[in-house]
Amino acid sequence: MDFKVISFLVILGFVAIYFFVYFLYVFFYFLLPMFFWGAFFAKTDDVSLQNMIKLAKIKPGDIAVDLGSGDGKIVIAMAKAGAIAYGFEINPFLVWVSRIKIKKAGLNGKAFVYCKNFWKEDLSKYDVVMMFQLSHVMASLEKKLEKQLKGGTRVLAKYFVFPNWKAIESLGMINLYKK
Predict the structure, then answer these.
(1) Does 29 lie in the same domain as 65?
(2) DSSP state of 84
(3) How far apart are the C-alpha atoms of 155 and 167, rounded to whole Å?
(4) 15: CB partners within 8 A, 6+ apart
(5) Strands 154-158 and 174-178
(6) How many domains are there within the chain?
(7) N vs C: which end of the chain shows fewer Cβ within 10 Å?
(8) Residue 169 DSSP class
(9) Which domain holds residue 163?
């Protein structure tokens, strides 16, 4: 075999490996969760994250939660802002990723992500609740929050709105509600 053929095969091999690794990333991060756990992961952009933290007005000692915490980005930001931050995520792969990021950020003891379904959790202890849920979920979630949250709890939702609650403030795609 001549050098050009070998070079072509080596490059082709690297391209195949790249696409295989990319496929695995997409499969485990986005597609598999939808089939087994009923949700998909959508990464929070930095501007929305800054807007959420700004609107939440987190104070040291606040107890905050992200419902469907994905890769833990919001949980980490809430902990850095001074809250004891929790996340509920049903995708075990994303829980694992979140815990690694929390450890790398040095936030053990301030940020926690659990592999749990938030629908089965009591949310009454939280001062701040953040979420990015789909429109068909918001009505049921509004009822759950209405029943469980204490007065004064700050609720932040990205993009999708609650059908009956009125936002008291908005910034970009983020809406702030108060119970």
Answers:
(1) no
(2) E
(3) 9
(4) none
(5) antiparallel
(6) 2
(7) N
(8) E
(9) 46-178
Closest-CA residue to 118 (of 83, 75, 159): 75
Q: What is the pLDDT of residues 123-174, one digit of tens each?
A: 999 999 999 988 888 999 999 999 999 999 999 999 999 999 999 999 999 9
User: Do 77 and 111 fall into the same domain?
Assistant: yes
Instruction: Report the alpha-carbon distance of residue 32 to residue 112 in Å, rounded.
Output: 23
CA dihedral sign of residues 170, 171, 174, 179: negative
- Backbone φ and ψ of 146, nearest 5°: -60, -40
Cα–Cα distance measured from residue 24 to residue 131, given in angstroms and rounded to the nearest whole number: 27
The two three-digit tokens of residue 167, written as one number:
């936002």
Same domain, 122 and 59: yes
Task: State CA 142 to chain mean position distance.
Answer: 18
Judge if 90 and 153 occupy the same domain.
yes
120 and 161, same structural domain?
yes
The pLDDT tens digits for 105-125 are: 999 999 999 999 999 999 999
Half-sphere exposure of 120 (CA within 13 A, CB side): 7
